[in-house]
Amino acid sequence: MSNLKLYRPILNGMITMLFVVTVNAESMPPERVRWQKAPIAVALSVGDERMVHFRRAVSVGIPATLQSLLRTQTVNGTVYWMAKAPFGRTRVMVREIDGGQTYLIDLSADSQAKTSAAMVVFVDETTTSENQIGEVGEGARHGYVSLTRYASQQLYAPPRLLSSVTGIVRVPVQQQSVPLVRGDRITAKPLAAWRAGHLYVTAVKLTNRTSKGQTLDPRTLRGAWLSATFQHARLLPAGSDADTTAVYLVSAQPFAESL
Predict the structure, then answer these.
(1) Which residues have CB under 8 Å from 164's CB, separation 6+?
(2) pLDDT tens, residue by residue, 99-110
């Protein structure tokens, strides 16, 4: 963790002052479904976008009967569906571009449907070791808030307060600048990442590169994120003591695949 300690003086340890902006409502956590060859039912609420996350980049085959009723967008391993009108259960095929796995999805849409904004599809790995199974089980207890809090503590809490948490493990991430924020006004550099079950959280350092203050908005972030939490809501002009902050990004895939 020594490389992370370097950034504590920048933000003066403001762990208790997180400015939270979640992409999806925390009150409706993502639905988790394990693929076991049986078709997966995905219900849509008309007019509301729903994300379905797969382990790899996918292509989607939409029947002609749904072409005018459904908007489909695919970014890496995330499919964004939004129904324009109600329709009954219809079979859709989703195929991994590189992995070769094909998923059967039974889509339906209703104006009264109450669903989570995101669904994560797991693959039933029969070769998973007992240790891995136990790790996933422990990690499943952690949600957006607990993962974000853990990442923030790892960056800014005093060493005496740091402790390991069962089910959360450190994962590698490239510590180099990435085009995370649209507009070329803010530099973004991943600092560290962790995984809990099938969720990932990445801490990214944000630095204002302009002479004007910048208000942070999750809508300017590139990538497929389940939630985005800013340490501060605003960056002061470049060169000031508060021109740098951090954002914690929760995703269904590793950072590089979600960007």
Answers:
(1) none
(2) 678 899 999 999
